[in-house]
Specification:
Layout (H helix, E strand, L loop, with lengths): L1 H36 L6 E4 L4 E7 L3 E6 L6 E5 L3 E5 L1 H13 L1
Antiparallel strand pairs: 1-2, 1-5, 2-3, 3-4
Main location: membrane
Organism: Fusicatenibacter saccharivorans
Family: Belongs to the YajC family.
């Protein structure tokens, strides 16, 4: 009887660990990968270090991001260094809705 209870508790603990730790992390990874796959030239991005910029060129694993208004500040970086993406169409729609209010 005690071996059966031990196995049952191990299964329950593994199930709880899966649903509380592993599954949410996999969902977040899929969301991040989908965001990076939809990345396009002209998108506004935020890097892992907190810099805001605009994507000006994309290759397989790298992007070239332009920071600030200075056209000479272009830095190549890995796609994985991007944490947030804002599409230019979204910004235009938000500005129009704010002006109407």
């Amino acid at each position: 009887m005690s071996t059966g209870m031990l196995i049952m508790w191990l299964v329950i603990m593994f199930g709880m660990m899966y649903f509380l730790m592993i599954r949410p992390q996999k969902k977040e990874q899929k969301k991040l990968q989908a965001m990076l796959n939809d990345l396009a030239v002209g998108d506004a991005v935020v890097t892992t270090s907190g810099f805001y910029g605009v994507v000006i060129d994309i290759t397989d694993d790298d992007v070239i991001v332009e920071f600030g208004n200075n056209k000479n500040c272009r830095i190549p970086m890995r796609k994985t260094a991007i944490t947030e993406v804002e599409k230019p169409e979204t910004a235009v729609v938000e500005e129009k809705t704010e002006k109407k209010k």
